[in-house]
Structure formats: C-alpha cells, structure tokens
Amino acid sequence: MPETFDLLEHNAAAWNHRARQDSPWSRPVTSEAIEAARRGEWGVCVTPSPLPADWLGDVAGKDVLCLASAGGQQAPVLAAVGARVTVLDLSSEQLARDAMVARRDGLALTLEQGDMRDLSRFPDGAFDLILHPISNQFVPDIQPVWNECWRMLRKNGVLISSFFNPAVFIADRDPAFARQGLIRPRFAVPYSDLEQLSEAERAAKVARNEPMMFGHGLSSQIGGQLAAGFTIAGFLEEMHPSPRFEIEKYLPAFIATRSVKG
Ligand SMILES: C[S@@+](CC[C@H](N)C(=O)[O-])C[C@H]1O[C@@H](n2cnc3c(N)ncnc32)[C@H](O)[C@@H]1O
C-alpha cells in the first residue's frame, strides 16, 4: 500500500459515495415507520431481521449511542420511542441521513462525526446502551472499540454489535469460480484488503470508490469483547438474504452479540 494512503479519508469518501447512491445501509426509515414507533410498534436491525425485543428492552429515557451506525435507520426509531440518542459516524453523508429524518419527523438526535476508535469525547459511564451494527469491518484494529464501549457504558449497560462471520472472507472473489459453484480458499483470517489484495485489485477497489474492509477473527470479535470485560449474554446468526458470495449460501454471514457490562 502506498505510504500516503489514508484509510479514514478513503473510507469516509467511500461511505459518502454509498450514501449518495442510496445503498441499503443508507436508506432512511420512512415517516410511517416513525409514526408506528411512536405508537409502540417498532424494531431495529443489526442483521437483516429486527432484533428480538428482549435484546433492547424498554429504551425510553435511556442514553443510547449508535456507534458507526448512521444512515437514518436505527437512531431515529430509538429516538421516536423516547431514547436520548447520539450517533457517531465517520461519514458526513451518512450522518446527513439521520439529520434529515430528525428534521422531517421532529426528533432530537445528537450527531457526531468521528472515528469509532477514538471515543475520548464521551465521558465514562455516559450510556445505557450502545448499538454497533456491521461496521467494525472498516477498521483494522477493534480492541480499542470494545475497550471504549466498556468505559462509556454504565453498570449493567448493554452493547449490541454485529459483524460478518469471518468465513465469508476466505474465498477468491473471481466470479469464474462462483459460476462453477466453487469456493476457492485464497485469503487467511484475519483478513485485510490493505494487505491481502494485489495492488491491481486494491486500485480497482479505490477506483470503484469502495471502502477498504477487514475480516476479523472470532478471537477479536468475541474474545475482544470478553477481554474488555463484557459478559456475552446473547448470540444470533442469520443467513444473507441475497448472497454475494458462494460461501454465503452455506453458512450464516451475519453474527450478532448482546453483551453486558456487569
Ligand atoms: C454498514 S454501515 C452501518 C450503518 C447502518 N445504519 C446499519 O444499519 O448497519 C457502516 C457504517 O460505518 C461507518 N464507518 C466506517 N468506518 C468508520 C470509522 N472508522 N468510524 C466510524 N464510523 C465508520 C460508515 O460511515 C457507515 O455508516
């Protein structure tokens, strides 16, 4: 990788681009969904299906951080059911989706732009709940994120996170293999776009304005939360509804955990 490559700058621009392209992670909830939430009919997703209701409990009056979770999706719904919600995200365009919903539907949201690995702006014990959907795949080192989540939660606070099953990163993505129904192992886990793609493949990703990704192993995803001090109290897996890779036809691509600061 050229020494001048700035991961944060590149990924922020790539997510701004995705938001402008109306990616599934950037499609704001409708006013109807907010109205329904105000009537008590609501759910939020960190995997394709809504979370089990008992993972969230009653969030009214709670301080909630939506961590790297902008896009106008989870945060406005949680605000509509009475939570005090802060969103931190790297991408100004993703944050603009939350700002749009808040303005449109009369919701209060605190929006912060920044890197999930530096959460020093938030004091110790500032939150009751942190929601951290499918986003630690965009940073190479996630232990600082788990440690900071533990610091920012109050006692008995809950961290709900989701991430990709590391197995989805191992296969060669050449469509010629998929056309033959083949999964050809090529990449070891932990996986890094920066270290394991060829220079030409990386340049093609940059040209397509795609964010750089990292496939963390379970020792970072699960072991990292335990090392930070959390107890893992809930676990679920879900298949990808429209598999992008052959391997996703055979195992759940999404994993979510519910962890508690005891
Ligand atoms: C898959 S989206 C998740 C948000 C979405 N609302 C959802 O439901 O999953 C990943 C998010 O991570 C954000 N992100 C990527 N790198 C980040 C970083 N270093 N710090 C904070 N946010 C980051 C992106 O801007 C994007 O909004």
Secondary-structure map:
Blueprint: H1 7-20, H2 31-38, H3 53-56, E1 63-67, H4 74-80, E2 84-89, H5 92-105, E3 109-113, E4 127-132, H6 143-152, E5 153-164, H7 175-179, E6 191-192, H8 193-196, H9 199-207, E7 214-215, H10 218-221, H11 223-228, E8 231-238, E9 254-260
Parallel strand pairs: 1-2, 1-4, 2-3, 4-5
Antiparallel strand pairs: 5-9, 6-7, 8-9
Helix pairs in contact: 1-5, 2-4
| Overall tally of domains | 1
Structural class: alpha/beta
CATH superfamily: Vaccinia Virus protein VP39
* CATH architectural designation: 3-Layer(aba) Sandwich
* SSE ordering: HHHEHEHEEHEHEHHEHHEE
Kindly provide the radius of gyration, computed on alpha-carbon positions and rounded to a whole number of angstroms. 18 Å
Assembly category: single chain
Q: What small molecules are bound in this structure?
A: S-adenosylmethionine
Per DSSP E runs of 2 or more residues, the count of β-strands stands at 9
Unreliable stretches, pLDDT < 50, 5 or more residues?
none
User: What does the average pLDDT come to?
Assistant: 97
Helix content percent band: 25-40%
Shape: globular
Order the strands across the largest sheet as they lie in space: 3-2-1-4-5-9-8
CATH class descriptor name: Alpha Beta
Described by strand count, sense and barrel closure, the largest sheet is: 7 strands, mixed
How many helical stretches?
11
Beta-strand fraction estimate: 15-25%
C-alpha termini separation: 42 Å
The CATH topology comes to Rossmann fold
Domain Methyltransferase type: 66-160
Protein name: Methyltransferase type 11 domain-containing protein
Pfam families: Methyltransf_11 (PF08241)
GO molecular function, one term: S-adenosylmethionine-dependent methyltransferase activity
